[in-house]
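re: that chain from earlier
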Amino acid sequence: MLKKVSTTGVDLESVYAQTLQRIREQKGDRSRLGVEVLMWVSHAKRPLTIGELCHALAVEIESTDLDPENICPRDTVLASCLALIVVDEETSIVRPIHYTLQEYLCLPGILQDAHEALALKCLTYLNYDQVKSLPADSRPCLQDMPFLQYSSVYWGIHAKAELSSRAKLLALETLRFYGSHISAALLFSDIYYSENIFVDVPLFTGLHCASYFGIVELAEALIEVGGHDINQTDCNGFTPLMWAAHWGNEGVVRLLLAMDDVIPDKPNNDGQTPLLQASFKGHEGVVRLLLARADVNPGQRDIDGSTPFSHACFGGHEAVVRLLLARGVSSDNPNNDGQTPLSDASFMGHEGVVRLLLARGVSPDRPDKDGYTPLSQAARGGHEGVVRVLLARSDVNPDKPNRNGETPLWWASLGGHEGVVILLLARNDVNPDRQNCVGQGPLWIASRKGHEGVARLLLAWDDVNPDNSDSWGLTPLKVASINAQSKIVALLEPRTAAPPSLDQAQR
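^ sequence. v structure.
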């Protein structure tokens, strides 16, 4: 159909509209089934298998358990969509016949209240007797209950998009005893690991769940009902506030901070506070809410000695960095490994944050406990912009080695970052042949890794000796031969005193 449409110039939107109208005009239950299939395929938060889809379609909103007779055969499901939906034979994934169909079905007004309908399906399923009877620490067979994993993980996303009064009641029914519900373990496992790893005792309450999804109405209702400790921690030490802060759910953060008994600075098992989580993720609005509290310490360190500020620098969140600086946090405090916020920003290549920190007067050449300077960190990552900024400073040593004797040039050569190598070689205070503590120089490591471009740049310097060997007697040519780097071998053989054969190198 699509080939015909593209060659005749027929408007795709008109074709889809006409086909959807034909689906709606089908007799009997085929009309409802066809529209619902399109709704799932276009609005589901991940692709569904045909098994998941068939079970989702079988859910009846007013029922208390799944009726096996409602599970439609695959052919019936596909036929109801008039060829708009196909199944991948290798993966069993159901998908639209073309990506433009997905776009059309998601247009406003095409499938109205889709998220509300999907939320109701998910929550009805989770409140089925056979689901509620599953022990929270059991490992359900997802082949027998293929819709369980999807409904457990994604119901909240659909409910947040369109929360009807009926869906709210069903959600509260699930969340009141959420810690003993199988869906809590499935959601918790999906968040932290994957659907293939199962957590036995998540200690994940309904308020944790509502805070994770960011559904203010549900969090508010749970608090009003009572019986929920708003400072309750899960097995990783996350409070509801921390879940909301981590995911940037400002509405829930605002709600929880308004509670008299909330502890806004309570750390998790790793010593991380809600402010640190929000800073790391770059949630500016949440950071503002937390910093407005006098009982939030903006300089609180986690178990690694890192602060919200260093995490914001690591993430490159300039707006959050500025907010924290306005609260008077230290801009140069190292963590337990001696890594400064400038080192973190340099390692990740956040040029804007680097410039901001340097303007605050931080030490631009301060090494960590292993001797890595911010320049070394930027060179490791191949971040040319940051390297340029740092090299422009007269108080930065461009050839400063770490504890193992590895310079910024060495690290740039290891990664094959030709642009950074060029910047460093342009300096007259960089030794292009400086060896590390085991005699391996920039050319040696570039040869081992097969970075031909870097090797050519280094060999252009008379100071680079291609016959230098490391502590085990391996020259750049030998190590290139051992690692089958044929292009490097061809490049080095004319430059060495006695080129070895591959067999000799391996001996």
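The chain has a mean pLDDT of 92.
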